């Protein structure tokens, strides 16, 4: 029986399956890209992209021995050793500067993803497209992108196996002035005016500038879940005796109040 969270494609008589999340990421990779998949696991994404002729070259990198060996087997069985180079290494260290123009990183927290991007700035030379899927702390990734002139042009939320994933694509704007102007437009705190005159910068980075502009059912579900998580933290803090706990609880309560206010201001027809 076919899994509704999998998409299949017949390539050269062989059925290849990608999860809906990997399939969505694949769609955002530019045609003819020189591609790197960081944290590649079994190299499913680069193999799929190479088999479909969408990329001209790929590096599949992972920090762990097991996934690297699995990736090598996958590449060998697909007879793609001349297109895909499988490498072991930490983050972007598997790349040479200028070697690729598109990088995908998925399946890790946003704080770790931002650290990988920061530590690999030298290897990102020549990289014009980043396709990313952080599963928590998305704000850390968006802040890194703004700081380094990568402008988000796609954002979606995708539910798979009961988990809501954030997917984003950002392209490099080489003119720093233009980049700053576009970031200012994207992260406009009056994005919901006149319904809500101002949304805090911190929440804008958490929620996502494009996701806020086109809120979906998944968006509302994700943030109702976030409210529930934060209310559980507030309850735990209310039982703590340390003086700092009360102040922390007030901060979390203010977060919840603002999230509720934002959700209530979103267009009714988009719920």
TrEMBL record:
InterPro entries: SAM-dependent_MTases_sf, TrmK
Coiled-coil spans in chain: none
Signal peptide, first to last residue: none
Gene3D superfamilies linked to this entry: 1.10.287.1890, Vaccinia Virus protein VP39 (3.40.50.150)
Keywords: Methyltransferase, Transferase
Biological process (GO), any one: methylation
Pfam family name, one: TrmK
Gene Ontology MF terms in the entry: tRNA (adenine(22)-N1)-methyltransferase activity
Protein name: tRNA (Adenine(22)-N(1))-methyltransferase
Protein's organism: Cohnella abietis
Lineage, top ranks: Bacteria, Bacillati, Bacillota, Bacilli, Bacillales
Gene: trmK
